[in-house]
Amino acid sequence: MTYLSTESSPSAPLDSTQDAESKVSLVKPDRAEKFAAPAAGTARVTPAPITPPAVHPLLGDDDVRPEPLKLIGVTLWALAVTLVGLVTAAAMVMLQLSGRGGMTAVLVMTPICGLLGIALAIAALVTITRDKVPYILLGASSLILLIYFGFVFAA
């Protein structure tokens, strides 16, 4: 039942000199022609059909470069939201440390709103090639900043 055969001498035991010279076949002898490699230059290769990827209506296409004005606009919006949030958070922490801050809930909300707002701004920059997603993410980041302003001014 074993199909291990050598071309040099199938009945003789293999030794170290035969091992390097002989070819070992793991295929049945009657099926060897089916698995044989074609002669050089005779193989025909047909390429697989290339189907274009489906484009999601909201996410858009991955291979599109962003328009320069869109890139500048989204970057400046993300920068503005992030800097305003960081300056406001720093001012609120300084007020809390000086003892003039009103509520400790604002101190708890500072890192939560800050990390969430910055993460949404970074996600907007990552998805710049999409159609509407960066604007949705930056809008959510701006909304979180407005909610944080509500906590700060209520304190």
Question: How does this model look, in words?
Answer:
With 155 residues, the chain is an all-alpha fold. It folds into two domains: 5-34, no CATH class; 68-154. The protein is 55% helix and 3% strand. The chain contains five helices and two strands. It has helices at residues 16-21, 32-35, 68-98, 104-126, 133-154; strands spanning 5-6, 24-25. The protein has a two-stranded antiparallel sheet. Helix 3 packs antiparallel against helix 4. Mean pLDDT is 74; it is low at 5-9.
Task: Briefly characterize the structure.
With 155 residues, this protein is mainly alpha-helical. 55% of the residues lie in helices and 3% in strands. It has helices at residues 16-21, 32-35, 68-98, 104-126, 133-154, and strands at 5-6, 24-25.
Shape, principal axes of CA atoms: elongated
- The structural class is mainly alpha
Residue share in helix: 55-70%
Quaternary status of these chains?
single chain
Mean pLDDT: 74
Number of helices: 5
Task: Name some characteristics of this structure.
155 residues; mainly alpha; two-stranded antiparallel sheet; 5 helices; 55% helix
